[in-house]
Amino acid sequence: MSFYSIAPFIEKYYPQYYSIKDYPKEQCVTIHKVKEEWGILSNFGRTPIVVNGVEFKSAEQLFQMMKFKDKDVLLDIYGAGNPKMKAKKWERAYRRSDWGQMIVDAIKFCLQCKYDQNADFREKLKDTDNRYIVEDQTTFRKKYADTWGVKLVDDKYVGPNLQGRLLMELRDNGKLTYSLSDDALDFVNLLK
Questions:
Q1: Of 57, 100, 139, 168, which residue is 20 to 30 A from 107 by alpha carbon distance?
Q2: Chain-wide mean pLDDT for the chain?
């Protein structure tokens, strides 16, 4: 298993999200690229989020930065065009030791902030009503979808679809329940 795989963390700490599901293609809203119709639902969608007075350009940037405590690493990721790839560079040496235990709570926090602070995101999410939301990874080189998404198999999307499941939970409830450690957001003060 790759160091970057989150599946072992999900299985151990978030078993309620550890499963493969399938979704009928004709009943799905697909997230694939930011510039496509449902792109705003992507964590990479340009929907600024403010946390403790610091602005993040996207939920993805905020999420990636929650992995770290080191100021130099954080500043490097904060200034990066692609925060996911920049974070990957630093993960082996600097990732929080408790990251696996907080990963789903962290993304729930990011999605809730995005929902609370961005009317366009809320409206687009509402527009998905009565449909499944899936992160379409069909064009990815991997044989199977990673924990976040699905791949098209015949007339169904198949995969763990953690991203879509959390978005549907947020859409249906208007709120995601999460629990972060006391120091989970301390990194924000290092950016001020």
A1: 139
A2: 96
